[in-house]
Design a protein that fits this description.
There is one protein chain. By secondary structure, this protein is mostly helical. The chain has two domains: about 120 residues, NAD(P)-binding Rossmann-like Domain (Rossmann fold); about 45 residues. Strand 1, helix 2 and strand 2 form a beta-alpha-beta unit. The longest helix is centred in the C-terminal third of the chain and has 43 residues.
Length: about 160
């Protein structure tokens, strides 16, 4: 919807929010998510190639972890900045490479992943990381179910006592 007007004005920027998961060699246990983020990456690079001759740039900003409720990271840390810190870094990167992990530490991590670390090591690490997330999720879910079952028993006992 906005691209034709940008092309007519011969300037503009479209920013897509991808994920570093779309750039990794493989993301076990998050295949659908990683696949959609890889699609965003390819779409962005292709659209940038189409739009650039008209003065329009298209960027894919690809964060790693950011300290948010969604990521379940309560406090910012070196590898997980606050949303404000990440956004400030992202805005500074507009106009440069089509695909960026704009926060400096994420960029450093991607450089290591892309240039130094063996693919198998990265895939194994990501798999173990996501197995840990999955294990924590199921543990929390089981605890909630146990608490709910305990509450149901207590409610039943209270009803019987009346």
């Amino acid at each position: 919807m906005v691209l034709p007007g940008m092309k007519d004005r011969r300037r503009g920027v479209i920013i897509n929010l991808g994920s570093a998961n779309g750039l990794l060699p493989a993301v076990p246990l998050l295949a659908t998510y990683a696949g959609t983020k890889a699609y965003i990456n390819q779409f962005t690079r292709s659209l940038d190639a189409e739009a650039r001759p008209f003065g329009v740039r298209v960027h894919d900003q690809c964060p790693m972890f950011v300290a948010t409720k969604m990521a379940k990271i309560r406090r910012a840390r070196l590898d997980a900045p606050t949303p404000a810190v990440w956004a400030k870094a992202a805005v500074k990167q507009i106009g440069y490479d089509t695909v960026r992990t704009p926060y400096w530490y994420h960029g450093l991590m991607m450089a290591v992943i892309n240039n130094l670390a063996p693919r198998g090591v990265i895939v194994s690490y990501v798999h173990k990381l996501h197995q840990g997330f999955r294990k924590a999720y199921y543990k929390k879910k089981a605890k909630a179910e146990m608490e709910a079952a305990g509450q149901a028993v207590a409610d039943l006992d209270a009803k019987k006592a009346k």
